[in-house]
């Protein structure tokens, strides 16, 4: 149970209101002596208190609480509008604070406390905290930015309008696409995905529209493309900003209802498909530069939806971390029960250039390093590191970090490209190797490395 301590009744009511979305049990007190009695009588695991309480100050309350219950998580909130003292932590009088709680600060503090005391990891996966207030699968967040995203999804998910999902890499664009499809009238039909950046132009056209037997060397039979596979359902075109102008023109024809022909075919095929597109590029800038077709851009952006970077919704980070750890606990022998306050502070003080995907990688790596129990700050390394022991790579926020963070590994991209090439060529090794620009022995070696099944 969480205990709130605040002598300002109006602010305390605001704290109570903020906690409604969390669905966690809590009690409240207006001064330190009452708080001390309540922690003795009730099963309190964490305390959030104003630092400037009368009679018994927040600092003195924290000292007494930690003395009587060392495992209790204690956080101090700084008085509004006053200078914030140097933050405490790491074995000091309290675990968090004093921290400003104006704006989203209280939500950040609550999430940090509940992750550190293990409350979040004791929640169920189908809890509103993790299922989202709209029940959109795996999209986690209580921040105003995410509530707006939920509202936008709800307004458009059961319509056939095209949606363009924009946002930095790792912000969850594919999750939004799945939610749009699963809550649409087409949910009983397939959602077909294609990554437009993972394929060379020579294969992307065949992947999207299919090809006829004999269309090229190695085309031993007709192959149905992604648009036909998605008929009466939805197609998710990820990284659509990476398509070549020639492929853009053919996709535009589908939008305009003129249909398409398979590669090497003459029959015009029309399909009933809802298009959901995503990109991390600035398409308007690409239009002005002549890289992306203006007419296709306006077709795609009938309903734009922009996902915020993680750094702009840090109050969601503890929820995201808990969700990732709960997924880990499903299959791991040793269960993670909490993250130390020092570990939580390390996560909350980082800028996350790779967004949620970056956070997921860091959390999963930390969980692997711990056989079970509590993850500490020493297990969490959000900064990029070299594989060998040498000079550390500069942090992305430093001037020396000139290149953007590598969010998606080259191995993942390469494997996806190889699998797509094999599908497009009906598992013809020679044709696939030619399209990929590598030799047959090299392709065989990579197939073995990635354990790709050569199913006919």
Concise overview:
The protein is 39% helix and 12% strand.
Protein model, in words:
By secondary structure, the protein is of the alpha/beta class. The protein has three domains: 2-117, Rossmann fold; 144-307, Rossmann fold (3-Layer(aba) Sandwich), CATH 3.40.50.300; 410-449, Homeodomain-like (Arc Repressor Mutant, subunit A), CATH 1.10.10. 39% of the residues lie in helices and 12% in strands. The protein contains 18 helices and 14 strands. The protein has helices at residues 9-19, 32-41, 58-68, 105-116, 128-131, 144-156, 173-182, 201-209, 226-229, 245-255, 283-288, 294-300, 317-331, 341-348, 355-369, 410-424, 429-436, 440-449, and strands at residues 2-5, 26-29, 46-50, 73-77, 96-99, 163-166, 191-195, 210-211, 223-224, 234-238, 274-279, 303-306, 336-339, 373-375. Strands 2-1-3-4-5 form a five-stranded parallel β-sheet, with helices on both faces. Helix 4 (105-116) packs parallel to helix 13 and helix 16 (410-424) packs across helix 17 (429-436). The radius of gyration is 26 Å and the shape is elongated.
